[in-house]
Amino acid sequence: MKISCLRTDLANAVSNVSRAVSTKASIPALEGILIKAYENNLNISGYNLEIGITTDIEATIKEEGEIVVSAKLFLDIVRRLPEEVVMIETDERMVTYISCGNVNYQIVGMSSVEYPDLPTFEKTDGLTINAKILRDMIRQTVYAVSENTAKPIYTGSLFEIEDKVFKIVAIDGYRMAIRSENVDSESKNRFVVPGKTQQEVLKLLNDDEDNVEIIIGQRHITFQIKNYKVISRLIEGTFLDYKSTIPNENKTEIVINTRVIINAVERMSLLNNDRIQSPVRCNFAEDEIKLSCTSAVGRANDVISVPIIGEPVEIGFNNRYLLDALKNTDTDEVKLVLNGALSPMIIKPVKGDCFVSIVVPMRLANEN
Protein backbone atom coordinates (compact mmCIF):
# COMPACT_ATOMS: atom_id res chain seq x y z
CA MET A 1 0.00 0.00 0.00
CA LYS A 2 1.25 3.49 -0.84
CA ILE A 3 -0.98 6.53 -0.39
CA SER A 4 -1.01 10.23 0.42
CA CYS A 5 -3.83 12.26 2.00
CA LEU A 6 -4.56 15.38 4.03
CA ARG A 7 -3.51 15.11 7.67
CA THR A 8 -6.69 16.88 8.92
CA ASP A 9 -8.99 14.48 7.06
CA LEU A 10 -7.02 11.49 8.29
CA ALA A 11 -6.90 12.68 11.92
CA ASN A 12 -10.66 13.36 12.00
CA ALA A 13 -11.48 9.98 10.48
CA VAL A 14 -9.15 8.02 12.76
CA SER A 15 -10.40 9.91 15.83
CA ASN A 16 -14.03 9.06 15.04
CA VAL A 17 -13.61 5.40 14.08
CA SER A 18 -11.29 4.79 17.07
CA ARG A 19 -14.27 5.15 19.39
CA ALA A 20 -15.42 1.73 18.19
CA VAL A 21 -12.02 0.14 18.93
CA SER A 22 -11.55 -2.20 21.89
CA THR A 23 -8.97 -1.00 24.43
CA LYS A 24 -8.42 -4.52 25.76
CA ALA A 25 -9.35 -7.30 23.38
CA SER A 26 -8.70 -11.04 23.21
CA ILE A 27 -8.07 -10.54 19.47
CA PRO A 28 -5.07 -8.14 19.10
CA ALA A 29 -6.34 -6.85 15.75
CA LEU A 30 -9.44 -5.40 17.47
CA GLU A 31 -7.19 -2.88 19.26
CA GLY A 32 -6.33 -1.52 15.82
CA ILE A 33 -8.02 0.18 12.92
CA LEU A 34 -8.32 -1.35 9.48
CA ILE A 35 -7.01 0.84 6.64
CA LYS A 36 -7.95 -0.16 3.09
CA ALA A 37 -6.73 1.70 0.00
CA TYR A 38 -8.53 0.91 -3.24
CA GLU A 39 -9.19 3.00 -6.38
CA ASN A 40 -9.55 6.62 -5.15
CA ASN A 41 -10.77 5.95 -1.60
CA LEU A 42 -9.08 5.37 1.71
CA ASN A 43 -11.45 3.38 3.93
CA ILE A 44 -10.84 3.39 7.70
CA SER A 45 -12.75 1.14 10.13
CA GLY A 46 -12.94 0.39 13.83
CA TYR A 47 -14.90 -2.55 15.27
CA ASN A 48 -15.30 -4.10 18.73
CA LEU A 49 -17.64 -6.97 17.71
CA GLU A 50 -20.67 -4.93 18.88
CA ILE A 51 -20.29 -1.55 17.18
CA GLY A 52 -18.43 -0.75 13.98
CA ILE A 53 -17.65 2.72 12.60
CA THR A 54 -16.33 3.07 9.07
CA THR A 55 -15.64 6.02 6.76
CA ASP A 56 -14.05 6.93 3.43
CA ILE A 57 -11.74 9.89 2.87
CA GLU A 58 -10.16 11.27 -0.28
CA ALA A 59 -6.61 10.09 -0.94
CA THR A 60 -4.14 9.62 -3.76
CA ILE A 61 -3.70 5.86 -4.11
CA LYS A 62 -0.35 4.95 -5.69
CA GLU A 63 -0.46 1.30 -4.61
CA GLU A 64 -3.56 -0.49 -3.36
CA GLY A 65 -3.52 -2.57 -0.19
CA GLU A 66 -4.74 -2.90 3.40
CA ILE A 67 -3.21 -3.00 6.88
CA VAL A 68 -4.22 -3.01 10.55
CA VAL A 69 -2.37 -0.56 12.82
CA SER A 70 -2.67 0.30 16.52
CA ALA A 71 -5.54 2.80 16.77
CA LYS A 72 -4.10 4.74 19.72
CA LEU A 73 -0.52 4.95 18.40
CA PHE A 74 -1.59 5.82 14.86
CA LEU A 75 -3.93 8.57 16.07
CA ASP A 76 -1.28 10.02 18.38
CA ILE A 77 1.18 10.13 15.48
CA VAL A 78 -1.20 11.67 12.93
CA ARG A 79 -2.39 14.37 15.34
CA ARG A 80 1.19 15.55 15.92
CA LEU A 81 2.47 15.58 12.34
CA PRO A 82 3.83 19.00 11.35
CA GLU A 83 2.41 19.45 7.84
CA GLU A 84 -0.82 18.85 5.98
CA VAL A 85 0.11 16.11 3.46
CA VAL A 86 0.83 12.66 4.93
CA MET A 87 2.50 9.80 3.06
CA ILE A 88 1.78 6.23 4.21
CA GLU A 89 3.44 3.15 2.82
CA THR A 90 3.51 -0.51 3.87
CA ASP A 91 5.78 -3.39 2.90
CA GLU A 92 5.45 -7.17 2.77
CA ARG A 93 6.64 -7.43 6.41
CA MET A 94 3.64 -5.35 7.57
CA VAL A 95 5.86 -2.43 8.52
CA THR A 96 4.04 0.90 8.05
CA TYR A 97 6.06 3.96 7.08
CA ILE A 98 4.53 7.35 7.88
CA SER A 99 6.19 10.53 6.61
CA CYS A 100 5.20 14.18 6.80
CA GLY A 101 7.69 16.99 6.14
CA ASN A 102 10.89 16.05 7.94
CA VAL A 103 9.15 13.60 10.29
CA ASN A 104 9.29 9.86 9.64
CA TYR A 105 7.83 6.93 11.58
CA GLN A 106 8.04 3.18 11.17
CA ILE A 107 5.45 1.19 13.10
CA VAL A 108 4.57 -2.49 13.11
CA GLY A 109 1.23 -3.36 11.58
CA MET A 110 -0.84 -6.54 11.29
CA SER A 111 -2.33 -8.39 8.38
CA SER A 112 -5.92 -7.45 7.57
CA VAL A 113 -6.69 -11.19 7.46
CA GLU A 114 -6.68 -11.11 11.27
CA TYR A 115 -9.36 -8.38 11.36
CA PRO A 116 -12.98 -9.62 11.76
CA ASP A 117 -15.39 -8.67 8.99
CA LEU A 118 -17.85 -5.93 9.84
CA PRO A 119 -21.45 -7.23 9.78
CA THR A 120 -23.28 -7.23 6.47
CA PHE A 121 -27.02 -7.74 6.41
CA GLU A 122 -30.07 -7.58 4.21
CA LYS A 123 -32.12 -4.41 4.56
CA THR A 124 -35.67 -5.11 5.77
CA ASP A 125 -36.75 -1.52 6.47
CA GLY A 126 -35.40 2.02 6.59
CA LEU A 127 -36.00 5.57 7.68
CA THR A 128 -34.59 8.92 6.56
CA ILE A 129 -34.57 11.70 9.17
CA ASN A 130 -32.98 15.11 9.63
CA ALA A 131 -29.66 14.94 11.49
CA LYS A 132 -30.51 17.68 14.01
CA ILE A 133 -33.89 16.08 14.82
CA LEU A 134 -32.30 12.66 15.36
CA ARG A 135 -29.60 14.22 17.53
CA ASP A 136 -32.22 15.91 19.74
CA MET A 137 -34.32 12.74 19.95
CA ILE A 138 -31.40 10.61 21.10
CA ARG A 139 -30.03 13.22 23.49
CA GLN A 140 -33.41 13.73 25.14
CA THR A 141 -33.88 10.01 25.84
CA VAL A 142 -30.53 8.20 26.09
CA TYR A 143 -29.98 9.44 29.66
CA ALA A 144 -32.76 7.07 30.79
CA VAL A 145 -31.18 3.93 29.28
CA SER A 146 -30.40 1.35 31.95
CA GLU A 147 -26.81 0.52 32.90
CA ASN A 148 -27.91 -2.72 34.57
CA THR A 149 -26.93 -5.65 32.35
CA ALA A 150 -29.17 -8.05 34.31
CA LYS A 151 -31.96 -7.00 31.91
CA PRO A 152 -30.12 -6.41 28.60
CA ILE A 153 -33.24 -5.21 26.74
CA TYR A 154 -33.26 -1.99 28.81
CA THR A 155 -29.61 -1.19 28.06
CA GLY A 156 -31.04 0.06 24.77
CA SER A 157 -33.87 2.31 23.60
CA LEU A 158 -36.97 1.22 21.76
CA PHE A 159 -37.16 2.76 18.27
CA GLU A 160 -40.80 2.62 17.14
CA ILE A 161 -42.23 3.68 13.78
CA GLU A 162 -46.02 3.65 13.50
CA ASP A 163 -48.72 5.84 11.92
CA LYS A 164 -46.06 8.21 10.51
CA VAL A 165 -44.69 8.86 14.00
CA PHE A 166 -41.16 7.91 15.03
CA LYS A 167 -40.61 7.42 18.78
CA ILE A 168 -37.57 6.69 20.90
CA VAL A 169 -38.34 5.24 24.35
CA ALA A 170 -35.80 4.63 27.12
CA ILE A 171 -36.50 3.19 30.56
CA ASP A 172 -34.35 2.03 33.47
CA GLY A 173 -36.92 1.25 36.17
CA TYR A 174 -36.61 4.65 37.88
CA ARG A 175 -37.43 6.97 34.99
CA MET A 176 -38.70 6.85 31.43
CA ALA A 177 -38.12 9.22 28.51
CA ILE A 178 -40.19 9.31 25.32
CA ARG A 179 -39.47 11.55 22.34
CA SER A 180 -41.77 11.67 19.29
CA GLU A 181 -41.44 13.16 15.83
CA ASN A 182 -43.65 13.06 12.73
CA VAL A 183 -41.94 11.34 9.79
CA ASP A 184 -42.80 10.64 6.18
CA SER A 185 -42.83 6.87 6.48
CA GLU A 186 -45.46 4.19 5.96
CA SER A 187 -43.41 1.68 7.98
CA LYS A 188 -44.60 -0.11 11.08
CA ASN A 189 -41.60 -1.37 12.99
CA ARG A 190 -40.03 -1.57 16.45
CA PHE A 191 -36.52 -2.58 17.47
CA VAL A 192 -34.10 -1.89 20.33
CA VAL A 193 -30.83 -0.02 19.69
CA PRO A 194 -28.05 -0.29 22.32
CA GLY A 195 -27.44 2.85 24.37
CA LYS A 196 -23.71 2.68 23.55
CA THR A 197 -24.49 2.75 19.83
CA GLN A 198 -26.69 5.81 20.29
CA GLN A 199 -23.90 7.60 22.17
CA GLU A 200 -21.55 7.03 19.23
CA VAL A 201 -24.19 8.17 16.73
CA LEU A 202 -24.76 11.28 18.86
CA LYS A 203 -21.08 12.27 18.59
CA LEU A 204 -21.27 12.21 14.78
CA LEU A 205 -24.49 14.23 14.51
CA ASN A 206 -24.55 18.02 14.33
CA ASP A 207 -26.84 20.98 13.72
CA ASP A 208 -26.87 20.89 9.94
CA GLU A 209 -29.82 20.08 7.74
CA ASP A 210 -28.37 16.89 6.25
CA ASN A 211 -30.41 13.74 6.44
CA VAL A 212 -29.41 10.52 8.20
CA GLU A 213 -30.35 7.24 6.60
CA ILE A 214 -31.23 4.47 9.05
CA ILE A 215 -30.93 1.02 7.47
CA ILE A 216 -32.71 -1.70 9.44
CA GLY A 217 -32.11 -5.44 9.26
CA GLN A 218 -33.34 -8.43 11.25
CA ARG A 219 -30.52 -8.26 13.82
CA HIS A 220 -28.45 -5.22 12.83
CA ILE A 221 -28.81 -1.53 12.09
CA THR A 222 -26.70 1.01 10.20
CA PHE A 223 -26.76 4.78 10.64
CA GLN A 224 -25.43 6.51 7.50
CA ILE A 225 -24.21 9.96 8.65
CA LYS A 226 -22.53 11.87 5.83
CA ASN A 227 -19.50 9.75 4.94
CA TYR A 228 -19.66 7.67 8.14
CA LYS A 229 -21.46 4.42 8.79
CA VAL A 230 -22.20 3.21 12.32
CA ILE A 231 -23.08 -0.50 12.26
CA SER A 232 -24.50 -2.15 15.35
CA ARG A 233 -26.28 -5.26 16.50
CA LEU A 234 -29.84 -4.84 17.79
CA ILE A 235 -30.85 -6.08 21.23
CA GLU A 236 -33.24 -9.01 21.12
CA GLY A 237 -36.04 -9.41 23.64
CA THR A 238 -39.43 -8.03 24.63
CA PHE A 239 -39.53 -4.34 25.56
CA LEU A 240 -41.98 -3.11 28.20
CA ASP A 241 -45.45 -2.00 27.08
CA TYR A 242 -44.51 1.58 27.93
CA LYS A 243 -47.92 3.07 27.10
CA SER A 244 -49.56 1.17 29.95
CA THR A 245 -47.11 2.64 32.49
CA ILE A 246 -48.02 6.29 31.82
CA PRO A 247 -50.45 7.51 34.54
CA ASN A 248 -53.82 8.58 33.14
CA GLU A 249 -55.07 10.72 36.01
CA ASN A 250 -54.01 14.33 36.62
CA LYS A 251 -54.64 15.25 40.25
CA THR A 252 -52.12 18.12 40.36
CA GLU A 253 -50.69 20.28 37.57
CA ILE A 254 -48.01 22.97 37.61
CA VAL A 255 -46.65 25.03 34.72
CA ILE A 256 -43.23 26.32 35.70
CA ASN A 257 -40.15 27.97 34.20
CA THR A 258 -37.70 25.16 33.50
CA ARG A 259 -34.59 27.05 34.61
CA VAL A 260 -36.24 28.10 37.89
CA ILE A 261 -37.04 24.52 38.93
CA ILE A 262 -33.63 23.25 37.77
CA ASN A 263 -31.82 25.90 39.83
CA ALA A 264 -33.87 25.06 42.93
CA VAL A 265 -33.24 21.31 42.64
CA GLU A 266 -29.53 21.93 42.07
CA ARG A 267 -29.39 23.97 45.28
CA MET A 268 -30.93 21.07 47.19
CA SER A 269 -28.53 18.64 45.49
CA LEU A 270 -25.49 20.25 47.10
CA LEU A 271 -26.16 18.14 50.21
CA ASN A 272 -25.96 14.90 48.19
CA ASN A 273 -22.98 13.07 46.72
CA ASP A 274 -22.09 9.58 45.47
CA ARG A 275 -22.28 8.17 49.02
CA ILE A 276 -25.29 10.18 50.23
CA GLN A 277 -28.56 9.97 48.30
CA SER A 278 -31.24 11.73 50.32
CA PRO A 279 -34.45 12.58 48.47
CA VAL A 280 -35.31 16.10 47.42
CA ARG A 281 -38.65 16.68 49.18
CA CYS A 282 -41.17 18.72 47.18
CA ASN A 283 -44.35 20.03 48.81
CA PHE A 284 -46.83 21.33 46.23
CA ALA A 285 -49.52 23.39 48.00
CA GLU A 286 -51.07 26.88 48.18
CA ASP A 287 -49.39 28.15 45.01
CA GLU A 288 -45.92 27.29 46.32
CA ILE A 289 -43.40 24.53 45.85
CA LYS A 290 -41.45 24.07 49.07
CA LEU A 291 -38.25 22.14 48.41
CA SER A 292 -36.05 20.66 51.10
CA CYS A 293 -33.26 18.13 51.49
CA THR A 294 -31.92 16.65 54.71
CA SER A 295 -28.78 14.55 54.72
CA ALA A 296 -25.92 13.65 57.04
CA VAL A 297 -24.14 16.89 56.14
CA GLY A 298 -27.02 19.29 56.76
CA ARG A 299 -30.37 20.65 55.61
CA ALA A 300 -31.47 22.96 52.79
CA ASN A 301 -34.79 24.69 52.02
CA ASP A 302 -36.15 26.70 49.13
CA VAL A 303 -39.55 28.05 48.06
CA ILE A 304 -40.86 28.73 44.54
CA SER A 305 -44.04 30.75 44.08
CA VAL A 306 -46.05 29.29 41.20
CA PRO A 307 -49.77 28.62 40.49
CA ILE A 308 -50.79 25.07 41.41
CA ILE A 309 -53.93 23.49 39.98
CA GLY A 310 -55.50 20.59 41.85
CA GLU A 311 -54.72 18.71 45.05
CA PRO A 312 -51.76 19.46 47.34
CA VAL A 313 -49.11 16.73 47.36
CA GLU A 314 -45.79 16.05 49.08
CA ILE A 315 -43.40 13.86 47.11
CA GLY A 316 -39.68 13.03 47.04
CA PHE A 317 -37.27 12.43 44.16
CA ASN A 318 -33.73 11.30 43.50
CA ASN A 319 -32.11 14.62 42.63
CA ARG A 320 -30.06 13.25 39.71
CA TYR A 321 -33.03 11.52 38.07
CA LEU A 322 -35.15 14.65 38.40
CA LEU A 323 -32.41 16.92 37.01
CA ASP A 324 -31.74 14.61 34.05
CA ALA A 325 -35.39 14.80 33.05
CA LEU A 326 -35.64 18.59 33.48
CA LYS A 327 -32.37 19.42 31.72
CA ASN A 328 -33.31 17.42 28.63
CA THR A 329 -36.66 19.13 28.03
CA ASP A 330 -35.31 21.93 25.77
CA THR A 331 -38.30 24.18 26.50
CA ASP A 332 -38.51 27.40 28.52
CA GLU A 333 -41.52 26.11 30.47
CA VAL A 334 -42.65 22.61 31.41
CA LYS A 335 -45.82 21.10 32.80
CA LEU A 336 -45.47 18.90 35.89
CA VAL A 337 -48.30 16.41 36.33
CA LEU A 338 -48.68 14.60 39.66
CA ASN A 339 -51.00 11.84 40.71
CA GLY A 340 -50.32 11.43 44.43
CA ALA A 341 -47.23 10.93 46.56
CA LEU A 342 -46.40 7.42 45.33
CA SER A 343 -47.24 7.76 41.64
CA PRO A 344 -44.60 8.80 39.04
CA MET A 345 -44.43 12.47 38.05
CA ILE A 346 -44.85 13.34 34.39
CA ILE A 347 -42.81 16.15 32.83
CA LYS A 348 -44.02 17.29 29.41
CA PRO A 349 -44.33 20.41 27.21
CA VAL A 350 -46.96 22.99 28.07
CA LYS A 351 -48.41 22.36 24.60
CA GLY A 352 -48.08 19.21 22.50
CA ASP A 353 -46.53 15.89 23.36
CA CYS A 354 -43.17 15.78 21.55
CA PHE A 355 -41.54 14.56 24.75
CA VAL A 356 -42.70 12.87 27.93
CA SER A 357 -40.42 12.22 30.89
CA ILE A 358 -41.52 10.16 33.86
CA VAL A 359 -39.69 10.09 37.20
CA VAL A 360 -40.52 7.51 39.88
CA PRO A 361 -40.64 9.05 43.39
CA MET A 362 -38.63 7.98 46.45
CA ARG A 363 -40.45 7.11 49.65
CA LEU A 364 -40.21 9.88 52.21
CA ALA A 365 -39.50 9.34 55.87
CA ASN A 366 -41.55 11.40 58.31
CA GLU A 367 -39.81 14.56 59.45
CA ASN A 368 -40.37 16.31 62.75
| Mean pLDDT across every amino acid position | 95
Strand content: 35-45%
The strand order across the widest sheet is 14-11-12-13-26-25-24-18-22
Shape annotation:
elongated
Q: Return the structural class.
A: alpha+beta
Task: Walk me through this protein's architecture.
Helix content is 16%, strand content 43%. The chain has helices spanning 7-17, 71-79, 131-139, 195-204, 258-269, 319-327; strands at residues 2-6, 32-38, 41-47, 51-58, 60-63, 65-70, 85-90, 95-100, 103-108, 125-130, 156-162, 165-171, 175-182, 189-194, 211-216, 220-225, 228-233, 252-257, 280-285, 288-295, 298-305, 308-310, 313-317, 333-338, 345-349, 355-359. Strands 14-11-12-13-26-25-24-18-22 form a nine-stranded antiparallel β-sheet. An eight-stranded antiparallel β-sheet has the order 6-2-3-4-17-16-15-10. A five-stranded antiparallel β-sheet has the order 5-1-7-8-9. Helix 1 (7-17) packs antiparallel against helix 2 (71-79). The protein is elongated and about 80 Å long.
What's the structural blueprint in terms of helices and strands?
Elements: E1 2-6, H1 7-17, E2 32-38, E3 41-47, E4 51-58, E5 60-63, E6 65-70, H2 71-79, E7 85-90, E8 95-100, E9 103-108, E10 125-130, H3 131-139, E11 156-162, E12 165-171, E13 175-182, E14 189-194, H4 195-204, E15 211-216, E16 220-225, E17 228-233, E18 252-257, H5 258-269, E19 280-285, E20 288-295, E21 298-305, E22 308-310, E23 313-317, H6 319-327, E24 333-338, E25 345-349, E26 355-359
